[in-house]
Amino acid sequence: MNIRFYVACALFFPLFLFSSCDWGGSEDEMVTPNLRALHAHEQEMVFASSRFALDLFQQLQKKDDPNQFYSPYSIHQALSMAMNGNEGEVLEEFNNVLRFEGMSLEEANEAAESLTKFLLELDPKVRLSIANAIWYKQEFEANPNFEATVRNSFKAEVAGLDMANPQSVDVINNWIENNTEGLIKDMLDAIPSTAVMYLVNAIYFKADWKYRFNSANTHKAPFYVTPQQVVEVEMMSMNESAPMRNYTTEGLEYLEIPYSTGHYNMGVITGTDLDTKLQDFSFEDLENWREQAFEANLILHMPKFKMRYKMEELKEDLMAMGLEKPFNPSPVNFTQLFANPTESMYISRVIHDALIEVDEWGSEAAAATIVEVDLTSAGPNQPRIFALDKPFVFFIQDNHSGAILFMGKLGNPALL
What we know:
416 residues; alpha+beta; Antithrombin, Chain I, domain 2; 2 domains; 6-stranded mixed sheet; 16 strands
């Protein structure tokens, strides 16, 4: 990725003032984003988390769900914490699936800390929080090195928990609810007697569009699930054209819809026969599209929608991606979690829950990931209409670093 390219885009994009567009705030309210060039290890973390995001996207496309939404960043963070409890061949498997090629464990931890800090501080007008917590069975003693690492690199809260107490479920659920602004509730159903640790990530995002939609323009309109199947949606429409980065290739269109100061955006990929054309879509493809996209004046029409998507058995997908050893009980699993000897351990569940709401003002999104560890026992300069009236993939990303925070697919709004 050309870092200079992203820095230039990030620096100059806010300078294009369109008087005909409804800005997300007055000129007096505009703030300066905290831009700087990414350090090499931060860029490596962007590559790792984004490649993992696209790997997971391809795996989840094998499901029949027409609508999906999740946070690959959240899943990556939770698994990265779990990675620190391992060594040897198990650590290597985590390393490969999380795409930390060429990075040591220490380098990956340092990069996770640094990139998260950068994303949290980037845009003062965007509400973003990323939080981590770990609970372990209070009868056990956490490995001091593991505890120090997750506290320092992931800013994780670490605490013992009486897992035999039925109210312990509420402790974890309440933490998730508090760290997702109440959007993710009652995520964990029960704590099995064999559970010894929960590694949890929560992420929350809220931002106004840079160019807002006029709610008076929102109306019922057709959405083409297929050329033959049409459903009705609440379609939002802009009054005037606005500058947005756009790229077209082989029947697909890529669009960046900016939030706030323009340093976060909703990336969109749409086109006919979308699932087939994206079968081999990779991070390298996305990088190329970002670099080749150029500014076009567009009058955007897009659906207003709210989606919740929960995956109770994400472990099946992760195993298909190559993370197998941690899910099978073995004495070589999680040898660095506890100071005291234990029976063989394994990941029994990976649960992910996510929600997004898109309206005329902007987007609000939240997600949480639970890792449960158990014991055995381009467009023209003239304005044109860009209508998202057929299935599309979308993701919330940082324009400066390229980090992908959330991903989803809207295939059939009638099923929401």
